């Protein structure tokens, strides 16, 4: 409903400001939306999932957890988008959600995954039985989740997992935004609570003084 209301509001704003068809824009109130929690895996859960997946999907999961790329960017990744010497890949603007090209640095794990795919397909990096894998959300994926004991988890949550791990290991949010190709800082703010390290030095500012603690114990 909110998506439809937003379209109507955009049309009315243009009719008023650009086309001058109407004198004013009526107020349109959007419905309140619940905030969704970020779903991510622990290292142990990720290992269990990978162990339960068939090899071709396990490799794609490892690559996703190493790069944070969306499902479509992984399944449609071509060899022409990989530069092994420079240790990077790139997503073209027409393949990115924000319609902006993304440079993807490749770590040792993602490079190892790519090397294991060499010779499997002439065009696409990831394939199965000689054909490109165009859809990763298959029965094999869902059954692996069940066997691993992981509930309420989508393929896109691998991207959330990648971002969560980054923040937990100290990656600044502005760097994460660039790595993930997000257009707005607000998109990475949802991971901020996973990295309270920058607040640690101030935590003691609210501690009880020694004398006060002793008085409380006596009371």
Question: What order do the helices and strands come in, and which of them pair?
Answer:
Blueprint: H1 2-17, H2 43-52, H3 55-67, H4 71-75, E1 82-83, E2 88-91, E3 102-105, H5 108-117, E4 127-128, E5 131-132, H6 139-148, H7 157-168, H8 173-180, H9 186-189, H10 210-218
Antiparallel strand pairs: 1-2, 2-3, 4-5
Helix pairs in contact: 2-3, 2-6, 3-5, 3-7
Keywords:
219 residues; mainly alpha; hpI Integrase, Chain A; 2 domains; three-stranded antiparallel beta sheet; two-stranded antiparallel sheet; globular; DNA integration; Integrase-like_cat_sf; Integrase_catalytic; Tyrosine_recombinase_XerCD
Strand order of the largest sheet: 1-2-3
Beta-strand residue percentage: 5-15%
- Summarize model confidence as the mean pLDDT: 88
What structural category do the secondary elements indicate? mainly alpha
Which residues form runs of ≥5 with pLDDT under 50? none
Number of strands: 5
Overall domain count: 2
Helix content: 40-55%
Q: What is the succession of H and E elements?
A: HHHHEEEHEEHHHHH
Keywords: DNA integration, DNA recombination
Protein name: Tyr recombinase domain-containing protein
Organism: Methylomonas koyamae
Domain Tyr recombinase: 36-204
């Amino acid at each position: 409903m909110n998506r439809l209301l937003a379209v109507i509001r955009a049309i009315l704003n243009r009719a008023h400001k650009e086309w001058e068809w109407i004198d004013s824009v009526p107020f349109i109130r959007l419905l309140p939306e619940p905030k969704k929690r970020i779903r991510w895996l622990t290292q142990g859960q990720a290992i269990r999932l990978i162990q339960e997946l068939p090899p071709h999907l396990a490799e794609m999961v490892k690559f996703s957890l190493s790069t944070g790329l969306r499902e479509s960017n992984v399944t449609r990744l071509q060899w022409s988008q990989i530069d092994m010497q420079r240790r990077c890949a790139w997503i073209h603007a027409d393949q990115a959600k924000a319609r902006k090209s993304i440079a993807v640095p490749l770590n040792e794990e993602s490079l190892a995954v790519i090397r294991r795919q060499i010779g499997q397909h002439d065009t696409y990096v990831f394939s199965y039985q000689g054909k490109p894998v165009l859809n990763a959300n298959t029965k094999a994926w869902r059954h692996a989740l069940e066997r691993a004991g992981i509930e309420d988890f989508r393929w896109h949550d691998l991207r959330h997992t990648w971002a969560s791990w980054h923040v937990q290991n100290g990656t600044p949010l502005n760097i994460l935004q660039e790595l993930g190709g997000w257009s707005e800082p607000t998109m990475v703010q949802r991971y901020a609570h996973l990295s309270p390290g920058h607040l640690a030095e101030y935590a003691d500012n609210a501690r009880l003084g020694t004398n006060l603690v002793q008085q409380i114990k006596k009371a």
